[in-house]
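Treating backbone geometry as a discrete language has practical consequences that deserve illustration. The sequence in question and its structure tokens are set out directly beneath this paragraph.
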Amino acid sequence: MRQGPAGLLFAAAAIACFSAISWAQGVNLFPAPGSESTGEREMKALAAAYPDRISQAAQRNSDWSVDVAGEWFAWAHGRILPESKSADWERYASFRFYPYSPGGLPPLPQLDADSAARLKKALEEARVHPPRRSEDFLERLFGAGSRAETESQIVTVDLAGFPVQVNRRIAEPLARVAAECARLRVADPQAAAFFAGLSEADGFNYRDVAGTATRSYHSYGLALDLIPKSYGGKSPYWRWVMDGTDQWWLIPYQKRWMVPLSIVAAFEKQGFVWGGKWLFFDTMHFEYRPEIFILARPHET
């Protein structure tokens, strides 16, 4: 079984937005000061990603906004808040948009000494002051405003023989992933061996991201972890190795527990990002973020 929660990229991303955004510019995770997004591309990407829930993206009151099932949410400096709360944007961490490269493995990130020091300081500050993102947008988007309401949205999808509980709104894309994985188990010996080596696939889990006051994507039923019977002495997760090295991001891919890229591609094709490509790597973790792929397309608005 796992020794800790998934998705700590999000904790660190929120940390960076609060207190150390400059370190992340070195790995192209956030815009530099003075080039903050207006929100137009991001809000249009959200509208394109969730057309059944977001009826339009429009500029309202000098801010880009989206209409989510009859309620308007403003960009609010990247916080994505109900319009009634947009003036209080400084209380919250930013919603997480980041560059993502579908396909092969990206180069390992390179942080200079100054950036690494700022990163360390940001993590230390977050232990004292856990960052918090507004939950209003995701709760409205996925019908997950309370635990009871969230649980009413949960369905089970079979993935390679493992039952995975997810939000019903992502059941169809995950079922398409499962169909592709079933094909890979027959056609690809590496994929077949990988699935044979799994112990479970965890989806819905109502909890916060560790080190924050923010709900995990697992708590909405939007993420899943593929957990092996053995990690074979390799590292799947940045936090598990950070005590042994102060540069976990440089651990070579061959020393990390990895998901075969054919399986990663099956997930990415259906709008799931893989935590193995994050600076704060979590190679077990997938989550549904179709807007990230829309933003990655050339000239996409």
Remarks:
- The chain has eleven helices and ten strands.
- The chain has a mean pLDDT of 87.
- Residues 8-296 form one domain.
